[in-house]
Backbone:
Protein backbone atom coordinates (compact mmCIF):
# COMPACT_ATOMS: atom_id res chain seq x y z
CA UNK A 1 0.00 0.00 0.00
CA UNK A 2 1.44 3.37 -1.01
CA UNK A 3 1.49 6.45 1.19
CA UNK A 4 -1.24 7.98 -0.98
CA UNK A 5 -3.46 4.87 -0.84
CA UNK A 6 -3.02 4.84 2.94
CA UNK A 7 -4.17 8.46 3.23
CA UNK A 8 -7.09 7.87 0.86
CA UNK A 9 -8.23 4.69 2.57
CA UNK A 10 -7.94 5.61 6.24
CA UNK A 11 -7.75 9.37 6.58
CA UNK A 12 -9.80 10.95 3.80
CA UNK A 13 -13.33 11.80 4.92
CA UNK A 14 -15.75 14.41 3.60
CA UNK A 15 -15.21 17.78 5.35
CA UNK A 16 -18.33 19.83 4.57
CA UNK A 17 -17.31 22.39 7.20
CA UNK A 18 -14.12 23.20 5.27
CA UNK A 19 -13.76 25.02 1.95
CA UNK A 20 -11.13 22.41 1.03
CA UNK A 21 -10.11 19.35 3.06
CA UNK A 22 -7.53 16.56 2.64
CA UNK A 23 -5.87 16.21 -0.77
CA UNK A 24 -4.16 19.49 -1.69
CA UNK A 25 -1.05 21.28 -0.41
CA UNK A 26 -3.12 22.89 2.34
CA UNK A 27 -6.68 22.88 3.61
CA UNK A 28 -8.82 26.00 3.25
CA UNK A 29 -11.00 27.09 6.15
CA UNK A 30 -13.39 29.98 6.74
CA UNK A 31 -13.72 31.38 10.24
CA UNK A 32 -17.21 32.69 11.05
CA UNK A 33 -17.59 36.46 11.52
CA UNK A 34 -16.91 37.59 15.07
CA UNK A 35 -15.06 34.38 15.91
CA UNK A 36 -11.38 33.87 16.67
CA UNK A 37 -9.45 30.76 15.70
CA UNK A 38 -8.09 28.78 18.66
CA UNK A 39 -5.22 26.48 17.63
CA UNK A 40 -3.14 24.03 19.62
CA UNK A 41 -0.84 21.08 18.95
CA UNK A 42 0.11 17.98 20.94
CA UNK A 43 2.47 15.19 20.00
CA UNK A 44 2.20 11.63 21.37
CA UNK A 45 5.31 9.47 21.30
CA UNK A 46 5.42 5.70 21.76
CA UNK A 47 7.15 4.82 25.03
CA UNK A 48 6.74 8.35 26.39
CA UNK A 49 2.98 8.95 26.24
CA UNK A 50 1.70 5.43 25.66
CA UNK A 51 2.91 1.85 25.80
CA UNK A 52 3.91 0.47 22.37
CA UNK A 53 1.25 -2.25 22.59
CA UNK A 54 -1.61 0.18 23.33
CA UNK A 55 -4.86 -0.78 21.60
CA UNK A 56 -4.82 1.28 18.37
CA UNK A 57 -8.52 2.20 18.64
CA UNK A 58 -7.95 3.65 22.12
CA UNK A 59 -4.77 5.35 20.89
CA UNK A 60 -6.71 7.00 18.05
CA UNK A 61 -9.23 8.23 20.62
CA UNK A 62 -6.55 9.54 22.99
CA UNK A 63 -4.51 11.21 20.25
CA UNK A 64 -7.49 13.44 19.45
CA UNK A 65 -8.77 13.66 23.04
CA UNK A 66 -5.63 15.30 24.47
CA UNK A 67 -5.84 17.93 21.74
CA UNK A 68 -9.57 18.52 22.20
CA UNK A 69 -8.83 19.03 25.89
CA UNK A 70 -6.65 22.06 25.05
CA UNK A 71 -9.54 23.65 23.14
CA UNK A 72 -11.90 22.80 26.01
CA UNK A 73 -9.59 24.72 28.36
CA UNK A 74 -9.97 27.79 26.11
CA UNK A 75 -13.75 27.49 25.84
CA UNK A 76 -13.40 26.94 22.09
CA UNK A 77 -15.74 24.99 19.81
CA UNK A 78 -13.62 22.32 18.02
CA UNK A 79 -13.94 22.41 14.22
CA UNK A 80 -10.93 20.98 12.38
CA UNK A 81 -7.76 18.94 12.91
CA UNK A 82 -4.64 17.92 11.02
CA UNK A 83 -2.84 14.65 11.80
CA UNK A 84 0.83 13.96 11.13
CA UNK A 85 1.80 10.31 11.57
CA UNK A 86 5.20 8.73 11.77
CA UNK A 87 4.77 4.95 11.44
CA UNK A 88 7.29 2.08 11.59
CA UNK A 89 5.27 0.35 8.85
CA UNK A 90 1.95 0.58 7.04
CA UNK A 91 0.05 -1.99 9.15
CA UNK A 92 -3.47 -1.97 7.67
CA UNK A 93 -5.12 -3.56 10.68
CA UNK A 94 -3.49 -1.05 13.04
CA UNK A 95 -4.36 1.87 10.76
CA UNK A 96 -7.97 0.74 10.42
CA UNK A 97 -8.42 0.59 14.21
CA UNK A 98 -6.44 3.77 14.92
CA UNK A 99 -8.41 5.80 12.40
CA UNK A 100 -11.71 4.31 13.67
CA UNK A 101 -10.88 5.45 17.21
CA UNK A 102 -9.80 8.87 16.00
CA UNK A 103 -12.89 9.46 13.86
CA UNK A 104 -15.31 8.09 16.48
CA UNK A 105 -14.26 10.89 18.85
CA UNK A 106 -13.99 13.41 16.00
CA UNK A 107 -17.61 12.69 15.02
CA UNK A 108 -18.73 13.10 18.64
CA UNK A 109 -17.32 16.62 18.66
CA UNK A 110 -18.00 17.64 15.07
CA UNK A 111 -14.29 17.78 14.23
CA UNK A 112 -13.20 17.35 10.60
CA UNK A 113 -9.78 16.01 9.63
CA UNK A 114 -8.64 18.46 6.96
CA UNK A 115 -4.98 17.62 6.42
CA UNK A 116 -1.97 15.66 7.53
CA UNK A 117 1.25 13.95 6.70
CA UNK A 118 2.38 10.32 6.85
CA UNK A 119 5.96 9.16 6.97
CA UNK A 120 8.02 6.14 7.96
CA UNK A 121 9.67 6.41 11.35
CA UNK A 122 9.24 5.68 15.07
CA UNK A 123 5.54 5.61 16.08
CA UNK A 124 4.71 9.24 16.72
CA UNK A 125 1.38 11.04 16.43
CA UNK A 126 1.05 14.80 16.05
CA UNK A 127 -2.28 16.62 15.88
CA UNK A 128 -2.95 20.30 15.34
CA UNK A 129 -6.47 21.12 16.50
CA UNK A 130 -8.45 24.19 15.48
CA UNK A 131 -11.64 25.61 16.89
CA UNK A 132 -13.68 28.77 17.05
CA UNK A 133 -14.39 31.01 20.02
CA UNK A 134 -16.30 34.32 20.06
CA UNK A 135 -13.74 37.14 19.89
CA UNK A 136 -12.65 38.12 23.40
CA UNK A 137 -14.47 35.22 25.11
CA UNK A 138 -11.65 32.65 25.32
CA UNK A 139 -10.73 31.34 28.79
CA UNK A 140 -7.12 32.26 29.50
CA UNK A 141 -4.72 31.14 32.21
CA UNK A 142 -4.09 34.74 33.15
CA UNK A 143 -7.57 35.80 34.23
CA UNK A 144 -7.75 34.48 37.81
CA UNK A 145 -8.58 37.00 40.56
CA UNK A 146 -7.88 36.98 44.31
CA UNK A 147 -10.87 35.49 46.10
CA UNK A 148 -11.92 33.30 43.16
CA UNK A 149 -13.12 29.79 43.92
CA UNK A 150 -10.97 27.04 42.38
CA UNK A 151 -13.02 24.33 40.67
CA UNK A 152 -12.17 21.00 39.03
CA UNK A 153 -14.27 18.66 36.92
CA UNK A 154 -14.46 14.90 37.37
CA UNK A 155 -12.11 12.98 39.66
CA UNK A 156 -8.34 13.60 39.79
CA UNK A 157 -5.46 11.12 39.82
CA UNK A 158 -7.47 8.39 38.13
CA UNK A 159 -5.24 8.10 35.05
CA UNK A 160 -2.06 8.15 37.16
CA UNK A 161 -3.45 5.40 39.42
CA UNK A 162 -4.36 3.38 36.32
CA UNK A 163 -0.82 3.74 34.99
CA UNK A 164 0.67 2.87 38.40
CA UNK A 165 -1.50 -0.26 38.36
CA UNK A 166 -0.29 -1.25 34.87
CA UNK A 167 3.28 -0.65 36.02
CA UNK A 168 2.75 -2.86 39.09
CA UNK A 169 3.40 0.00 41.53
CA UNK A 170 -0.01 -0.50 43.08
CA UNK A 171 -2.79 -3.08 43.00
CA UNK A 172 -6.18 -1.39 42.64
CA UNK A 173 -9.44 -2.98 43.78
CA UNK A 174 -11.58 -4.14 40.85
CA UNK A 175 -14.11 -1.25 40.83
CA UNK A 176 -11.44 1.45 41.15
CA UNK A 177 -9.23 -0.28 38.59
CA UNK A 178 -11.75 -0.20 35.74
CA UNK A 179 -12.54 3.48 36.35
CA UNK A 180 -8.83 4.36 36.50
CA UNK A 181 -7.95 2.41 33.35
CA UNK A 182 -10.87 4.06 31.54
CA UNK A 183 -9.53 7.48 32.61
CA UNK A 184 -6.06 6.51 31.33
CA UNK A 185 -7.14 4.98 28.02
CA UNK A 186 -10.32 6.90 27.16
CA UNK A 187 -10.03 10.41 28.58
CA UNK A 188 -13.13 12.50 27.92
CA UNK A 189 -12.18 16.04 26.85
CA UNK A 190 -14.45 18.52 28.67
CA UNK A 191 -15.40 20.46 25.56
CA UNK A 192 -19.02 21.20 26.52
CA UNK A 193 -17.88 22.38 29.96
CA UNK A 194 -15.30 24.77 28.51
CA UNK A 195 -17.89 26.31 26.19
CA UNK A 196 -20.42 26.61 29.04
CA UNK A 197 -17.82 28.45 31.18
CA UNK A 198 -17.07 31.17 28.57
CA UNK A 199 -19.04 33.85 30.40
CA UNK A 200 -18.62 32.41 33.90
CA UNK A 201 -14.97 31.45 34.58
CA UNK A 202 -12.08 33.91 34.95
CA UNK A 203 -9.34 31.40 34.08
CA UNK A 204 -9.11 27.77 32.99
CA UNK A 205 -6.57 25.07 32.13
CA UNK A 206 -6.78 21.36 31.43
CA UNK A 207 -5.09 19.01 33.88
CA UNK A 208 -2.60 17.20 31.68
CA UNK A 209 0.57 17.52 33.79
CA UNK A 210 -1.06 17.24 37.24
CA UNK A 211 -3.25 19.54 39.34
CA UNK A 212 -0.44 21.41 41.12
CA UNK A 213 1.58 21.93 37.93
CA UNK A 214 -1.40 23.08 35.87
CA UNK A 215 -2.98 25.21 38.60
CA UNK A 216 0.57 26.55 38.99
CA UNK A 217 0.40 27.84 35.41
CA UNK A 218 -2.79 29.76 36.21
CA UNK A 219 -1.15 31.18 39.36
CA UNK A 220 2.02 32.16 37.48
CA UNK A 221 0.12 33.76 34.59
CA UNK A 222 -2.23 35.54 37.01
CA UNK A 223 0.56 36.37 39.53
CA UNK A 224 -1.49 35.03 42.41
CA UNK A 225 -1.45 32.14 44.89
CA UNK A 226 -3.88 29.45 45.99
CA UNK A 227 -4.94 27.35 48.96
CA UNK A 228 -6.44 23.93 48.34
CA UNK A 229 -8.20 21.49 50.68
CA UNK A 230 -7.05 17.96 49.78
CA UNK A 231 -10.25 16.49 51.24
CA UNK A 232 -12.33 18.52 48.81
CA UNK A 233 -10.64 17.10 45.70
CA UNK A 234 -12.83 14.46 44.03
CA UNK A 235 -10.78 11.29 43.70
CA UNK A 236 -10.87 7.51 43.79
CA UNK A 237 -11.15 5.85 47.19
CA UNK A 238 -7.63 5.54 48.61
CA UNK A 239 -8.29 2.42 50.72
CA UNK A 240 -5.33 0.06 50.65
CA UNK A 241 -3.23 2.43 48.52
CA UNK A 242 0.06 3.79 49.84
CA UNK A 243 -0.78 7.32 51.05
CA UNK A 244 2.26 9.01 49.47
CA UNK A 245 1.61 7.40 46.09
CA UNK A 246 -2.10 8.22 46.35
CA UNK A 247 -1.54 11.89 47.14
CA UNK A 248 1.11 12.01 44.40
CA UNK A 249 -1.39 10.69 41.86
CA UNK A 250 -4.20 13.03 42.96
CA UNK A 251 -2.09 16.21 43.20
CA UNK A 252 0.56 15.60 40.56
CA UNK A 253 -0.66 12.77 38.35
CA UNK A 254 -0.89 13.79 34.73
CA UNK A 255 -3.18 12.60 31.94
CA UNK A 256 -6.49 13.40 33.67
CA UNK A 257 -7.69 15.97 31.07
CA UNK A 258 -10.23 17.36 33.50
CA UNK A 259 -10.58 21.14 33.66
CA UNK A 260 -9.38 23.33 36.52
CA UNK A 261 -10.96 26.79 36.50
CA UNK A 262 -11.52 29.78 38.72
CA UNK A 263 -14.64 31.92 39.15
CA UNK A 264 -15.98 34.43 41.66
CA UNK A 265 -18.12 33.12 44.52
CA UNK A 266 -21.20 34.85 43.06
CA UNK A 267 -21.18 32.34 40.18
CA UNK A 268 -21.47 29.19 42.33
CA UNK A 269 -25.14 28.70 41.52
CA UNK A 270 -24.57 28.99 37.77
CA UNK A 271 -21.64 26.58 37.94
CA UNK A 272 -23.71 24.04 39.86
CA UNK A 273 -26.41 24.44 37.20
CA UNK A 274 -23.80 23.72 34.49
CA UNK A 275 -22.73 20.60 36.41
CA UNK A 276 -26.33 19.43 36.49
CA UNK A 277 -26.98 20.20 32.85
CA UNK A 278 -23.82 18.39 31.69
CA UNK A 279 -24.19 15.66 34.33
CA UNK A 280 -20.53 16.25 35.12
CA UNK A 281 -19.40 16.59 38.76
CA UNK A 282 -17.78 19.98 39.44
CA UNK A 283 -16.10 20.50 42.80
CA UNK A 284 -14.87 23.58 44.64
CA UNK A 285 -11.46 22.57 46.03
CA UNK A 286 -10.03 25.87 47.31
CA UNK A 287 -9.55 29.51 46.52
CA UNK A 288 -7.20 31.98 44.87
CA UNK A 289 -5.31 34.34 47.18
CA UNK A 290 -3.02 37.33 46.70
CA UNK A 291 -0.09 35.63 48.46
CA UNK A 292 1.87 33.73 45.79
CA UNK A 293 2.55 30.00 46.04
CA UNK A 294 0.18 27.06 46.38
CA UNK A 295 -0.67 25.57 49.78
CA UNK A 296 -2.40 22.19 50.07
CA UNK A 297 -4.05 21.41 53.44
CA UNK A 298 -5.05 18.03 54.81
CA UNK A 299 -8.33 17.50 56.68
CA UNK A 300 -6.59 18.32 60.02
CA UNK A 301 -5.34 21.62 58.60
CA UNK A 302 -1.73 20.46 58.31
CA UNK A 303 0.14 21.28 55.09
CA UNK A 304 0.68 18.50 52.56
CA UNK A 305 4.10 18.68 50.94
CA UNK A 306 4.72 16.65 47.79
CA UNK A 307 8.05 16.07 46.14
CA UNK A 308 7.08 16.32 42.48
CA UNK A 309 4.52 18.89 41.41
CA UNK A 310 3.87 17.40 38.00
CA UNK A 311 5.11 15.76 34.87
CA UNK A 312 8.03 17.34 33.04
CA UNK A 313 9.51 15.65 29.98
CA UNK A 314 13.01 16.97 30.59
CA UNK A 315 13.40 16.82 34.38
CA UNK B 1 16.48 22.71 32.19
CA UNK B 2 12.77 21.98 32.51
CA UNK B 3 10.37 21.59 29.60
CA UNK B 4 8.87 24.99 30.48
CA UNK B 5 12.26 26.74 30.70
CA UNK B 6 13.14 25.21 27.33
CA UNK B 7 9.98 26.59 25.72
CA UNK B 8 10.47 30.00 27.36
CA UNK B 9 14.12 30.27 26.39
CA UNK B 10 14.11 29.00 22.83
CA UNK B 11 10.58 29.12 21.47
CA UNK B 12 8.74 32.04 23.07
CA UNK B 13 8.82 35.15 20.92
CA UNK B 14 6.44 38.10 20.74
CA UNK B 15 3.58 37.43 18.31
CA UNK B 16 2.00 40.83 17.65
CA UNK B 17 0.04 39.35 14.75
CA UNK B 18 -1.79 36.97 17.09
CA UNK B 19 -4.41 37.78 19.72
CA UNK B 20 -2.62 35.28 21.97
CA UNK B 21 0.61 33.40 21.24
CA UNK B 22 2.71 30.78 23.07
CA UNK B 23 1.89 30.14 26.75
CA UNK B 24 -1.76 29.13 27.08
CA UNK B 25 -3.69 25.97 26.16
CA UNK B 26 -4.18 27.31 22.63
CA UNK B 27 -3.21 30.33 20.56
CA UNK B 28 -5.90 32.79 19.48
CA UNK B 29 -5.82 34.14 15.92
CA UNK B 30 -8.00 36.54 13.96
CA UNK B 31 -8.40 35.96 10.23
CA UNK B 32 -8.82 39.19 8.23
CA UNK B 33 -12.22 39.81 6.61
CA UNK B 34 -12.53 38.24 3.18
CA UNK B 35 -9.60 35.91 3.78
CA UNK B 36 -9.57 32.15 4.15
CA UNK B 37 -7.21 30.26 6.43
CA UNK B 38 -4.82 27.90 4.62
CA UNK B 39 -3.41 25.25 6.95
CA UNK B 40 -0.93 22.44 6.34
CA UNK B 41 1.30 20.15 8.40
CA UNK B 42 4.58 18.35 7.70
CA UNK B 43 6.58 16.09 9.96
CA UNK B 44 10.35 15.60 9.67
CA UNK B 45 11.85 12.43 11.13
CA UNK B 46 15.53 11.82 11.82
CA UNK B 47 16.88 9.14 9.48
CA UNK B 48 13.92 9.48 7.10
CA UNK B 49 14.00 13.17 6.13
CA UNK B 50 17.43 14.18 7.36
CA UNK B 51 20.66 12.63 8.58
CA UNK B 52 20.92 12.53 12.40
CA UNK B 53 24.04 14.72 12.32
CA UNK B 54 22.41 17.47 10.21
CA UNK B 55 23.48 20.98 11.26
CA UNK B 56 20.70 22.09 13.66
CA UNK B 57 20.55 25.63 12.23
CA UNK B 58 19.94 24.23 8.74
CA UNK B 59 17.45 21.73 10.18
CA UNK B 60 15.53 24.56 11.83
CA UNK B 61 15.45 26.33 8.48
CA UNK B 62 14.33 23.25 6.57
CA UNK B 63 11.67 22.28 9.13
CA UNK B 64 9.87 25.55 8.48
CA UNK B 65 10.80 25.75 4.77
CA UNK B 66 9.04 22.53 3.77
CA UNK B 67 5.88 23.78 5.47
CA UNK B 68 6.10 27.26 3.95
CA UNK B 69 6.41 25.53 0.58
CA UNK B 70 2.93 24.03 1.02
CA UNK B 71 1.44 27.47 1.59
CA UNK B 72 3.40 28.81 -1.39
CA UNK B 73 1.74 26.12 -3.54
CA UNK B 74 -1.66 27.45 -2.45
CA UNK B 75 -0.79 31.09 -3.05
CA UNK B 76 -1.26 31.79 0.66
CA UNK B 77 0.44 34.46 2.74
CA UNK B 78 2.15 32.70 5.70
CA UNK B 79 1.17 34.12 9.09
CA UNK B 80 1.55 31.64 11.95
CA UNK B 81 3.05 28.26 12.85
CA UNK B 82 3.00 25.73 15.67
CA UNK B 83 5.98 23.47 16.35
CA UNK B 84 5.82 20.08 18.09
CA UNK B 85 9.22 18.68 18.98
CA UNK B 86 10.19 15.22 20.12
CA UNK B 87 13.78 15.34 21.40
CA UNK B 88 16.09 12.60 22.73
CA UNK B 89 17.42 15.14 25.26
CA UNK B 90 17.35 18.86 26.02
CA UNK B 91 20.66 19.79 24.34
CA UNK B 92 20.89 23.56 24.82
CA UNK B 93 23.45 24.11 22.07
CA UNK B 94 21.35 22.12 19.60
CA UNK B 95 18.16 23.92 20.64
CA UNK B 96 19.80 27.33 20.38
CA UNK B 97 20.96 26.63 16.81
CA UNK B 98 17.77 24.87 15.72
CA UNK B 99 15.55 27.70 16.97
CA UNK B 100 17.87 30.31 15.41
CA UNK B 101 17.53 28.61 12.00
CA UNK B 102 13.78 28.28 12.42
CA UNK B 103 13.23 31.91 13.45
CA UNK B 104 15.61 33.31 10.83
CA UNK B 105 13.37 31.91 8.08
CA UNK B 106 10.20 32.74 10.05
CA UNK B 107 11.28 36.39 10.27
CA UNK B 108 12.00 36.46 6.52
CA UNK B 109 8.40 35.46 5.83
CA UNK B 110 6.65 37.26 8.68
CA UNK B 111 5.65 33.98 10.34
CA UNK B 112 4.95 33.96 14.09
CA UNK B 113 5.37 30.84 16.24
CA UNK B 114 2.16 30.77 18.27
CA UNK B 115 2.19 27.37 19.92
CA UNK B 116 3.78 23.98 20.20
CA UNK B 117 4.65 20.97 22.29
CA UNK B 118 7.94 19.50 23.48
CA UNK B 119 8.44 15.95 24.62
CA UNK B 120 11.19 13.39 25.08
CA UNK B 121 11.48 10.84 22.29
CA UNK B 122 13.19 10.11 18.96
CA UNK B 123 14.17 13.32 17.13
CA UNK B 124 11.03 14.31 15.28
CA UNK B 125 9.82 17.75 14.18
CA UNK B 126 6.21 18.55 13.36
CA UNK B 127 5.02 21.94 12.16
CA UNK B 128 1.50 23.12 11.42
CA UNK B 129 1.64 26.22 9.23
CA UNK B 130 -1.19 28.70 8.79
CA UNK B 131 -1.61 31.47 6.28
CA UNK B 132 -4.23 33.71 4.70
CA UNK B 133 -5.46 33.75 1.13
CA UNK B 134 -8.27 35.88 -0.33
CA UNK B 135 -11.46 33.79 -0.36
CA UNK B 136 -11.69 31.81 -3.61
CA UNK B 137 -8.19 32.77 -4.82
CA UNK B 138 -6.20 29.76 -3.56
CA UNK B 139 -4.22 27.76 -6.15
CA UNK B 140 -5.57 24.22 -6.18
CA UNK B 141 -4.24 21.04 -7.76
CA UNK B 142 -7.56 20.52 -9.51
CA UNK B 143 -7.66 23.65 -11.68
CA UNK B 144 -5.46 22.64 -14.65
CA UNK B 145 -7.03 22.90 -18.14
CA UNK B 146 -6.18 21.14 -21.41
CA UNK B 147 -3.81 23.33 -23.40
CA UNK B 148 -2.26 24.95 -20.29
CA UNK B 149 1.47 25.52 -20.28
CA UNK B 150 3.33 23.64 -17.52
CA UNK B 151 5.83 25.81 -15.67
CA UNK B 152 8.43 25.13 -12.98
CA UNK B 153 10.50 27.51 -10.86
CA UNK B 154 14.24 27.18 -10.26
CA UNK B 155 16.23 24.08 -11.21
CA UNK B 156 15.01 20.53 -10.57
CA UNK B 157 16.86 17.52 -9.17
CA UNK B 158 19.37 19.64 -7.30
CA UNK B 159 18.48 18.38 -3.81
CA UNK B 160 18.40 14.75 -4.99
CA UNK B 161 21.83 15.14 -6.61
CA UNK B 162 23.15 16.71 -3.40
CA UNK B 163 21.84 13.76 -1.39
CA UNK B 164 23.27 11.26 -3.92
CA UNK B 165 26.63 13.01 -3.50
CA UNK B 166 26.47 12.77 0.30
CA UNK B 167 25.56 9.09 -0.06
CA UNK B 168 28.52 8.50 -2.38
CA UNK B 169 26.28 7.46 -5.30
CA UNK B 170 27.78 10.22 -7.46
CA UNK B 171 30.70 12.63 -7.31
CA UNK B 172 29.61 16.13 -8.31
CA UNK B 173 31.98 18.75 -9.72
CA UNK B 174 32.72 21.53 -7.20
CA UNK B 175 30.42 24.22 -8.63
CA UNK B 176 27.44 21.87 -9.07
CA UNK B 177 28.07 20.31 -5.67
CA UNK B 178 27.70 23.52 -3.67
CA UNK B 179 24.50 24.48 -5.49
CA UNK B 180 23.04 21.00 -4.97
CA UNK B 181 23.95 20.87 -1.27
CA UNK B 182 22.43 24.33 -0.80
CA UNK B 183 19.23 23.11 -2.45
CA UNK B 184 19.21 20.07 -0.13
CA UNK B 185 20.03 21.89 3.12
CA UNK B 186 18.54 25.35 2.57
CA UNK B 187 15.52 25.03 0.30
CA UNK B 188 13.88 28.38 -0.47
CA UNK B 189 10.10 28.15 -0.28
CA UNK B 190 8.59 30.03 -3.25
CA UNK B 191 6.13 32.03 -1.17
CA UNK B 192 6.31 35.29 -3.18
CA UNK B 193 5.85 33.32 -6.41
CA UNK B 194 2.76 31.53 -5.11
CA UNK B 195 1.17 34.81 -4.07
CA UNK B 196 2.04 36.43 -7.43
CA UNK B 197 0.37 33.54 -9.28
CA UNK B 198 -3.01 33.84 -7.47
CA UNK B 199 -4.73 35.46 -10.44
CA UNK B 200 -2.57 33.90 -13.15
CA UNK B 201 -2.13 30.14 -12.59
CA UNK B 202 -4.88 27.54 -12.93
CA UNK B 203 -3.20 24.92 -10.71
CA UNK B 204 -0.06 24.65 -8.59
CA UNK B 205 1.84 22.20 -6.39
CA UNK B 206 5.22 22.23 -4.71
CA UNK B 207 7.77 19.69 -5.87
CA UNK B 208 8.50 17.75 -2.69
CA UNK B 209 8.17 14.16 -3.95
CA UNK B 210 9.60 14.70 -7.45
CA UNK B 211 8.33 16.41 -10.61
CA UNK B 212 6.49 13.41 -12.09
CA UNK B 213 4.83 12.46 -8.79
CA UNK B 214 3.76 16.00 -7.97
CA UNK B 215 2.70 16.93 -11.50
CA UNK B 216 0.90 13.57 -11.37
CA UNK B 217 -1.21 14.90 -8.47
CA UNK B 218 -2.26 17.90 -10.58
CA UNK B 219 -3.12 15.58 -13.48
CA UNK B 220 -5.08 13.21 -11.24
CA UNK B 221 -6.99 16.01 -9.51
CA UNK B 222 -7.67 17.72 -12.85
CA UNK B 223 -8.32 14.43 -14.71
CA UNK B 224 -5.94 15.41 -17.51
CA UNK B 225 -2.58 14.37 -18.95
CA UNK B 226 0.70 16.08 -19.79
CA UNK B 227 3.63 16.03 -22.19
CA UNK B 228 6.99 17.29 -20.99
CA UNK B 229 10.22 18.04 -22.87
CA UNK B 230 13.14 16.84 -20.74
CA UNK B 231 15.47 19.32 -22.46
CA UNK B 232 13.30 22.23 -21.33
CA UNK B 233 13.56 21.35 -17.63
CA UNK B 234 16.05 23.66 -15.86
CA UNK B 235 18.63 21.49 -14.10
CA UNK B 236 22.27 21.17 -13.10
CA UNK B 237 24.75 20.29 -15.85
CA UNK B 238 24.79 16.50 -16.22
CA UNK B 239 28.40 16.21 -17.41
CA UNK B 240 30.09 13.18 -15.92
CA UNK B 241 26.93 12.03 -14.12
CA UNK B 242 25.38 8.65 -14.93
CA UNK B 243 22.46 9.46 -17.27
CA UNK B 244 19.93 7.18 -15.56
CA UNK B 245 20.74 8.63 -12.11
CA UNK B 246 20.67 12.15 -13.52
CA UNK B 247 17.27 11.76 -15.17
CA UNK B 248 15.99 10.04 -12.01
CA UNK B 249 17.05 13.02 -9.89
CA UNK B 250 15.59 15.60 -12.30
CA UNK B 251 12.27 13.85 -12.93
CA UNK B 252 11.71 12.01 -9.65
CA UNK B 253 14.07 13.56 -7.09
CA UNK B 254 12.20 14.91 -4.10
CA UNK B 255 13.04 17.76 -1.74
CA UNK B 256 13.30 20.51 -4.38
CA UNK B 257 10.42 22.66 -3.03
CA UNK B 258 10.16 24.51 -6.32
CA UNK B 259 6.66 25.19 -7.65
CA UNK B 260 5.09 23.43 -10.64
CA UNK B 261 2.08 25.31 -12.01
CA UNK B 262 -0.12 25.50 -15.08
CA UNK B 263 -1.48 28.56 -16.86
CA UNK B 264 -3.00 29.37 -20.23
CA UNK B 265 -0.66 30.47 -23.05
CA UNK B 266 -2.12 34.01 -22.95
CA UNK B 267 -0.47 34.55 -19.56
CA UNK B 268 3.13 33.88 -20.72
CA UNK B 269 4.04 37.56 -20.73
CA UNK B 270 2.71 38.12 -17.21
CA UNK B 271 4.53 35.04 -15.94
CA UNK B 272 7.80 36.20 -17.48
CA UNK B 273 7.22 39.57 -15.81
CA UNK B 274 6.77 37.80 -12.45
CA UNK B 275 10.03 35.91 -13.05
CA UNK B 276 11.82 39.19 -13.70
CA UNK B 277 10.27 40.96 -10.72
CA UNK B 278 11.14 38.09 -8.33
CA UNK B 279 14.48 37.39 -10.08
CA UNK B 280 13.45 33.74 -10.08
CA UNK B 281 13.85 31.64 -13.24
CA UNK B 282 10.50 30.25 -14.45
CA UNK B 283 10.57 27.75 -17.29
CA UNK B 284 7.88 26.35 -19.59
CA UNK B 285 8.58 22.60 -19.73
CA UNK B 286 5.52 21.21 -21.50
CA UNK B 287 1.78 21.34 -21.71
CA UNK B 288 -1.41 19.82 -20.30
CA UNK B 289 -3.41 17.59 -22.66
CA UNK B 290 -6.78 15.87 -22.50
CA UNK B 291 -5.24 12.40 -22.91
CA UNK B 292 -4.45 11.10 -19.41
CA UNK B 293 -0.95 10.01 -18.36
CA UNK B 294 2.35 11.88 -18.43
CA UNK B 295 4.78 11.55 -21.37
CA UNK B 296 8.38 12.77 -21.08
CA UNK B 297 10.26 13.30 -24.37
CA UNK B 298 14.01 13.50 -24.90
CA UNK B 299 15.56 16.03 -27.30
CA UNK B 300 15.32 13.51 -30.18
CA UNK B 301 11.60 13.06 -29.53
CA UNK B 302 11.98 9.60 -28.01
CA UNK B 303 10.06 8.82 -24.82
CA UNK B 304 11.98 8.73 -21.54
CA UNK B 305 10.76 5.97 -19.22
CA UNK B 306 11.79 6.10 -15.59
CA UNK B 307 11.33 3.32 -13.07
CA UNK B 308 10.36 5.34 -9.99
CA UNK B 309 8.10 8.33 -10.39
CA UNK B 310 8.75 9.80 -6.97
CA UNK B 311 9.31 9.33 -3.30
CA UNK B 312 6.83 7.25 -1.34
CA UNK B 313 7.39 6.57 2.37
CA UNK B 314 5.66 3.20 2.28
CA UNK B 315 6.69 1.68 -1.07
Residues:
Amino acid sequence: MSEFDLIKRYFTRPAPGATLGVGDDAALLRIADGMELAVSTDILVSGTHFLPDTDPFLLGHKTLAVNLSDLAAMGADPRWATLALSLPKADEDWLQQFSAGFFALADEHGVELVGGDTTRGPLNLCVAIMGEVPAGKALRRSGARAGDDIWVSGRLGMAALGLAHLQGRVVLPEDTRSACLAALHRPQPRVALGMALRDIAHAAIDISDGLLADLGHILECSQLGAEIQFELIPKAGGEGIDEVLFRQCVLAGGDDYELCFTASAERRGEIEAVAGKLQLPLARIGSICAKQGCMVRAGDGSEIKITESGYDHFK
